[in-house]
What does this fold into?
Amino acid sequence: MIINKYSSDNSNFGTIITTLGNEIGKDGKPADQELLGNSIPDVLPILPVRGIVVYPLTAVPLTVGQPRSVNLIDDVSNNDRIIGLVTSKNPDIETPGPDELYRIGTAAAVHRLMKTPDGTIRLLVQGIARISIGDYIDTKPYLKAQVELHPETREKGIKLEALVRTTVKQFENLAHLVPSIPEEMIPTALNIDDPRQLAYAIATYLRIDLKLAQKLLEQDRVSSKLKQLLTVLGREIEVLELGHKLQKDAHTEMEGMQREYFLREQLKAIQRELGEGDEATLEVDEFRSKISAAGMPDEAHKEATRELERLSKLPTASAEYGVIRTYLDCITSLPWTNVTTDNLDLKHAQTVLNEDHYGLMPIKERILEFLAVRKLRLDRRPSRPVKSIDQIRHEREGVILCLVGPPGVGKTS
It folds into this structure.
């Protein structure tokens, strides 16, 4: 007996509430409800409901399938049709006992019922008044309990009127965001004079946690019910507006991607007409092959691939195209996997430096010092075969010399 909020099952709630409201009360004033409330028996058959809370002054469709519940409906359909609807604390329990039910429920009248071929019963119930559950006097063939009317605290004043108007306005805002809320429900809510009936009617439509829904029923003051509703309405509106914004952003992004795709296809067609397309495509493919064969580390490979993707989307006449092309030329020509044997002969190095460069004594001393440290570290390291270039990168430690000076002084040589 679970009703999903905002589902097609609720599409006729506005009509149901309006129709039954006219049957039970005039001009939104539930006078006959009070009359029915005063005639509620002291002992009622209790129909447990799972997953929802049925409020007074509202109409709710239910489906009954448990044998115990079917027996209950069969019995009351031949009598006064007044039952007690009490929410189960745990919706997963199919046949809850007295201890699994809340102590505050709703006395309701069974207005219509229809038996289906599979043995279940569909019925329409109208909440009459709030009741508190006393002792359970019977559990077979179905639950029966002593009940007592538990009326809400009546309030008046400008604060309550402000709460009512704000609640109606927020519900109107929500209705514009939820297509499944029928349009006739808005004028129906506007015409409800009883704040208590307004609170219960709106709560029927909201996606409220079961415990919060039960708390709303148990609130004695109508103003407290409306304040709780405003909190739930505000959150629902915020969530729905955010959802609509995300949908709009996703739609805009999709349109942007499609537009970009078409523009790039047009650009490729123009490049082909200008004779640029084939050359640019070949160049991109060539760079792609060079990047794959260069043996770069993961970080360098990722960056080179990213720049190549940018290059493929640029026209060859673009200034940025030339910059990226030069960068890729440089990065793919680096000796990523080439390994050479270092010449660490200090005497030979000193001879070459003195013959090829005049002066520069501090620089020569620093270079010789660098080579001496490399040779010393190599002599102390145990000899073992090198397995891969990655192992060399991982084990290579030390410094890299940086030669600074104007052009033509011999830095490269």
Q: What stands out?
A: The two ends are 89 Å apart (CA to CA). The chain has two domains: 8-240, 277-333. The chain is about 50% helix and 15% strand.
